[in-house]
Structure formats: structure tokens, C-alpha cells
Amino acid sequence: MLYILPIKYFVYPNLRRYFKDMERFLSLPFYLCAIGLIFSCQTVSSDQQNSERVKEAGPSPDQLIVVSVEEWSDFQGVLQAFERNDQGRWEEAFDAFPIVIGKNGLALGIHQLKGNQALKREGDLKTPAGMFSIGSAFGYAPKPLPGINLSYHPVTAQTMCIEDTASQFYNQILEEDEVQADWSSTDRMLRKDNLYEWGFFLNHNSPDAVPQAGSCIFFHIWRGADRGTAGCTAMSPENMIKLLEWIDPQKHPVVIQAPRSEALFFPSIPTVDSLANSSLDLIRMGGFFQDSNRPVNQSGR
């Protein structure tokens, strides 16, 4: 049977320390293959299946943001950013930095493979686990910083994200004075604590929002390293700006959020442009495991 290294073997800064956990690893076949961007770890049996999967996946991501915590219930973790270089190999874009997530940890995001864990629900104070694309950036400035390339929504006193599950605007950012209100619960984004001074919308339960599946999941500025969120991923102001300026929508960035302790499959994750016949070959296509003791390259960017 083919075994795949767990996500923690390549998203955690010190790779070697985790080989001490090998006995635990051997009990977890076909683990999430995060950094190879071949996250479905399934054997591909024919060229026809390969081409169909590529067609469904869309453009292959060249930027990857990995948010990891140790256990499902933890709210403190790290963020790492990876980018594919001209040779097709993944490099770490900058040093990992601390983040906080929902006060109650993680729950499976909607449209991710159902497992033994609870699904993300409105008001559960949990961050969705899975793989997601990135929506618009937002901020209190009338215009984005020069280095921000995402589409930008300037936050005003009228800007809100709709949390009312009965509203036709559920899980949308909008301007209150531009639509007919049909909601009773909103997240007003111009805040005195400046949490939303800079951030971006995570495309969880979007664009076709399912009621009660969770709304208004952002990356934004934190209250502090010891303060969990209502379900968003938060970080220091400096790191939030650094991340926003690094993200390039032309490179089809994706976000993975997951615990390092759990085996997960996320079937909606994109694949590389061409597929080989085994999950191990797929990982090698991302440039990994030629030397199993060597972590990804660091560009020092």
C-alpha cells in the first residue's frame, strides 16, 4: 500500500522533528498531500480520467497559502506561503508567521469531503477547514496600497457583510445604502478596533451561499496573538499587508486550512496541469521527495 507523508511533514518549519512520529504516520494511509497541490491522493487509472480531472480543476495554482493548527480545537497556528518558480518547483515565499483562527478551532467547510468532524455552521466560532479561493481585498483606505493586486472594496460607514441566513444577500459584502435591506444580522465593517483595516474575503460558502453554512469568513488583522476570532483567520497588521501585497490573482492563489493532527481529503482541490498514474508521481511533479529529508526551497523573499 502506498503511504503519503502527512501535511505536517511539509508545512511545519522543522521537517526532521516529525519523523519521530513515524509510527503514528504509518497508521494514516493516503494523507492530505498539501504542498504537492495534488490533494486528492487517489490513483488515476487512465488518460481519460486524467484529462477530465484537469478540465474540472481549472487553472493550476501557482501560489499556495497554508494555515495550520495542531488540533481541531486549537485557535493558534502558523501561516506559510508558497509559490511555484520558473522550474515548476515550490518555494517558500517568506518566513512562516503566527495566526489565530476561530475561538473554537476548525470545522469542515462546506463542499469539502464529509468526515467525522462537524461541518462549519453559522455562529459556531469555528474557522472552515478545506481549500478555498480568494475573493476581494478590502480596507479603510479609499484606494488599495500600490502593491495590492486583488480587486478592492473600500470600507465605509455603509459597508457590511450580511450574516442573516434568511437574507438574499447572505454572505455578501455590500453597501447598505445601495440595496433594499432584508436582514436583521450584519457585520459592520468600519470598526473602532480596526480589525478590518486590511483584509480579504475567503471564498467559503460562496458565491451560492447555503443558509447556516457560515458567512463573512475573512483574513484580517488580529486583536492579539492570544485572542481567537469568530471564525476568520487573523494576523498582525504587518503580516496582513505583507500577505496582501504578495498575493497575485494571475497566479490563481488558493488557501488551505487544516489541522496537522488529522488525515483529510478535500476533493475540490485543483490538480497540476498533467497527471501521472500514482499519487507519489503526482507529488514528485511538484518537485518534492527527491530527498525526503529536505524541506521546500526557501527563496528568502
Structure description:
The protein has about 300 residues and is of the alpha/beta class. Helices cover about 10% and strands about 25% of the residues. The protein has helices at about 10, 20-25, 45-55, 235-245, 280-285; strands at about 65-70, 75-85, 90-100, 105-110, 125-140, 150-155, 160, 175, 185-190, 200, 220, 235, 255-260, 295-300. Strands 1, 2, 3, 4, 5, 6, 10, 11, 12, 13 and 14 form an 11-stranded mixed β-sheet that branches. A 3-stranded antiparallel β-sheet has the order 8-7-9, with no helix packed on it.
Secondary-structure topology with pairs:
Elements (H helix, E strand, L loop, with lengths): L7 H4 L10 H4 L21 H11 L5 E7 L6 E9 L5 E11 L5 E3 L18 E13 L12 E3 L4 E4 L10 E3 L10 E3 L9 E5 L15 E4 L11 E3 L1 H10 L7 E6 L19 H7 L11 E2 L3
Parallel strand pairs: 1-13, 3-14, 4-5, 5-6, 11-12
Antiparallel strand pairs: 1-2, 2-3, 5-10, 5-13, 7-8, 7-9, 10-11
How far is the first residue's CA from the last residue's CA?
38 Å
Number of strands: 14
Overall geometry comes to globular
Share of residues in strands: 25-35%
Number of helices: 5
Mean pLDDT rating: 74
What is this structure, in a nutshell?
This protein has 301 residues and is α/β, with parallel strands linked by helices. Helix content is 12%, strand content 25%.
What key phrases describe this protein's structure?
disordered C terminus, 14 strands, eleven-stranded mixed β-sheet, alpha/beta, disordered N terminus, 301 residues, three-stranded antiparallel β-sheet
